[in-house]
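Running low. Invent one:
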Amino acid sequence: MNVAGTGADHHFPPPEAEGGWSYAESDEEIRERAHLDPNVLALAAKEQDWYYSGDSWCFSIVRHGVLATEFRSTDTMSSSRFDVFSVTKSFTSLAFGILMGDPEYAGRLDLDSHAYEFIPEGHPLTDSRKARVTVGQLLSMTGGFSGHYHIGGGTQTRLGDGVFEHLLGRVPNRYGYDVGQLIAEPGSRWEYSDPGFSHLSLVFANVTGRELDTFMNERLFGPIGIPAVSWIRSGGGKWIGPHTIAHCGLLLSSRELARCGYLLLRRGRWDGRQIVSTDWIERATRTSQPFNPNYGYGFWVNSSGRLWQNLPTDSFAMMGYRGNRCWVVPSLDLVVARTGSGPRMLDDTYFPSKVVDAVL
């Protein structure tokens, strides 16, 4: 990862309540401080307003530690939080990166650990092959679980059924699709699978005795100046849980998501404190397996140069439904964050390419 310096010379914004980001106050400052062309950014802003006028959204663009510009729909404020959907997966990845580097849990868990050794709720197994699924395979979408190509309607269940019961193969989802049987040998293929990924909720809770949301508020969000986040939990009562959902349900504003992207840009270090290990960030944001070069461990990556052809190959992103994104481009010292309620599908090449075109 080619980042121009990681030391104290960088600006680390205080919490929003204490002033927040240092921002460019004029076109001249956009040029001089962020080294971006304000005219190109202004045109990009107009295009977004035209294309997505019926949706709620906000963009935050940070370069060289400066909030160069921010534009949003008329019904959205800088503090508006949205469900960022599968962007959540990247934060689950970061939670596991912190966990595996924590001396308190040293030796208890690594990428080669068998996941079901930490999921007593999953026994007896609905498929004997599940015993061989590793934590690394869950994070890289190679566990052999049914996913978007095989089940409709995601992980939502029928009234009276629990989400984690579905993920473990006990009950079907709301459309009757069952994930009890694997569709491939663990580690033999890639398939984007919410049920597979959300096994990590149970692994995390059983290893630490804590929930992802409280752990990350303490270990990541709080230290970088983000007030306590909301992150959906599910289950409880007669069902397994309640546990934080690992694959979706985290609520963030665009500025907060940009702050997280900036942490990654600074290789996990924030104002002199190492929040996430550099080793984990570098590993998670590179190709993780031979089946899909565009996926790391909970992150989308451009290692092959084929995912976003107009972006540098060191680019990576957190990506979620309804246009929730955070692109990080280390070689350009750039973060582009978007949160919103739509559109359902977003062109993942067009807008970040426009921002790269604005680089001076």
Summary: The longest helix spans residues 38-51. The first strand starts at residue 57 and ends at 63. The chain has two domains: 16-82+253-357, 87-244.
